[in-house]
Amino acid sequence: MARGLYNDDVTTPSQLAEKTNATTKWHGSSVRKILENPHYMGILKQCRDHKPTVTSKKRKHNSISDQVVIENSHEPIVPIEDFLVVQELIKSRKRTRPQSEKYLFTNTAFCSDCGRGMHFKKNRKGYICGNYNKHGIKACSNHYISQTSLTDIVLTDLNRISNKINKNNYYQSLIKEITLNKEQMREILETNINELEAKKRDKTNLVIALSNGIISNDDYQLAINYLNEVITNIVNENRKLNKELEHQDIEKDLKEFKKNLSSFTDLQVVTPELLHTLIDRIEIKADGTTKIHYRFNEPTDPPAY
Known about the structure:
Radius of gyration: 29 Å
Largest sheet: 3 strands, mixed
Number of helices: 10
Number of domains: 2
Shape: flat
Strand order of the largest sheet: 5-9-10
Order of helices and strands: HHHEEEEHEEEHEHHHHHEE
Strand content: 5-15%
Helix content: 40-55%
Mean pLDDT: 80
Low-confidence stretches: none
């Protein structure tokens, strides 16, 4: 039913409420709340929930005894007989959800287009996009990949990295490349820091100009907004550069990778331990190709000198 409403472009409750995180997708829980809402048969329920504290953003459900129920408060939209039949159907179809099985790439494989986790399908012996599985083709394509293929891809890539590290002169070439990159990033960082200080001085001068009546409030606000945007961009770039500099500890990365890899003597089988130690996430594209994100910085190929 939820998929049908989504495919028919029916407005969702969150869209009607104009929530900032409103979604176009209908969920089974939303449909069930509507089907179980007694308002449709003329019953008004009040005090159904409360805030534990004045500042709390979350609400807690009240017990039935604490709720206020007013029957025949308004004209019913649905006859009570139909409403009760629906409740009986819901009860009869209620089933205990079996405990979900943990498959090898669960919580590791993700759709590269929508970002949802991949769901394992027993009948296909592989994974499909969770968004597609729940909402259909309108939400996303299936992004199918078999577990066998995904396992082979992971093993091949791990062996590729392992072999690359063991090449002659690889370590020295990589150190040279990383050192050069670090120097370039530090130069950019130093330039950004100087520019940041200059922009902060500009803000101070604007405040002085405003207080002395040299510029109008509108001109001040326009200039301040521009400077704040520039400062934010510089701060964000500096944060990225600092993070990159921290991550480019090549000796630490290589040692960490070798240490992790050495604990797995057999790289012919993917085990949950190997997977979760070395790999952060795997993105599956629509054509079945993959992008593997490791928990370590993968050593890059050294440049040719």
